[in-house]
């Protein structure tokens, strides 16, 4: 409001919109300037701190800018080897503070949560107890933030938190609010580990099932319209129903062994009940389907690859830093986003035809794709930290896209058509071919 001749003049709607538009344009100009500043500093290889300072301003404006988080990781990896532990520990604390500030702007920012995990993995002296307490405070503000729940599960594994304490934590949350579906869901994952059925018939022991049913009944009687407890209750009944359906399906297969749909249905049921328990049976049925339904041979081959990868991920050590799928007869890659934090990935001696899904490997430093059926390396140029790449014994005719991999130091191409014309490669690639 402006005072003129003793009278207050109120701004019109058009004037207010014009001011807002002016502010938006000014913010856009500033944002664009910051982006150019980061790009120039990175290109000119200026000191790490200047790159970090510039990218910080961008991320505070836009926490979901994945490239900026990668720029920071690139600088931090250099700092990790050039600084002493105390200095790098201080920088890690700065990174955690930045991630926290970004999460205040957007509590469900994928980039900020992933960066926090990445920092905790490299931090010389990580404070796991503090992080666990942080998730408790964050979930107190929003109990449905699945990013925070995932982060808590990660911290629990790294910290070695007693799972009984975690179960008690879910009890507290449920008693506070019976509608806390996330707490019910977390509880459903904890109980099979803590109270398994000794006979293997059910997920839980009989004693624990009765206790859980009592808890569910209390929730249902407190608020009969709330679906969370009912969905949790349903999971026990679903397992029994699926097992019964599988038995019926297998009886039908005995009568009609060449019928496609009972075979495929049995695969889906076994995967739903227990994918690891039934892995051999699933493979046998898929092989049978390839002969019964030969027109979809490739579909069943890819489906087998999907199941093999999912099974492997259930048993992998998520904190090892490396993962191997070598000699698994994989025809394609599924669940590539689950490999985000691995630095060493081995996919050698498979039957892969495309690397496109591997663009998700944003932390990968060493990638082995030897002896596959690849005809192109398009997609690998998106990996910012890739240092070592083995694509030997494939069908690749062109590796020029790899010029974009600025950190690539070693490239194996023997056994590819492109290996016959090394002299035609650019200087940057010729220098790293072995």
TrEMBL record:
Any one GO BP annotation for this protein: prenylation
InterPro entries listed in its UniProt record: Leu-rich_rpt_4 (IPR025875), LRR_dom_sf (IPR032675), Prenyl_trans_a (IPR002088)
Its EC number(s): 2.5.1.60
A GO molecular-function descriptor: Rab geranylgeranyltransferase activity
Catalytic reaction equation(s): geranylgeranyl diphosphate + L-cysteinyl-[protein] = S-geranylgeranyl-L-cysteinyl-[protein] + diphosphate
Main EC class the enzyme belongs to: transferase
UniProt KW keywords: Leucine-rich repeat, Prenyltransferase, Repeat, Transferase
GO cellular component: Rab-protein geranylgeranyltransferase complex
Pfam families: LRR_4, PPTA
Region of interest (Disordered), residue spans: 1-22
Family assignment from sequence similarity: Belongs to the protein prenyltransferase subunit alpha family.
Function of the molecule: Catalyzes the transfer of a geranyl-geranyl moiety from geranyl-geranyl pyrophosphate to cysteines occuring in specific C-terminal amino acid sequences.
Stated name of the protein: Geranylgeranyl transferase type-2 subunit alpha
Organism expressing this protein natively: Darwinula stevensoni
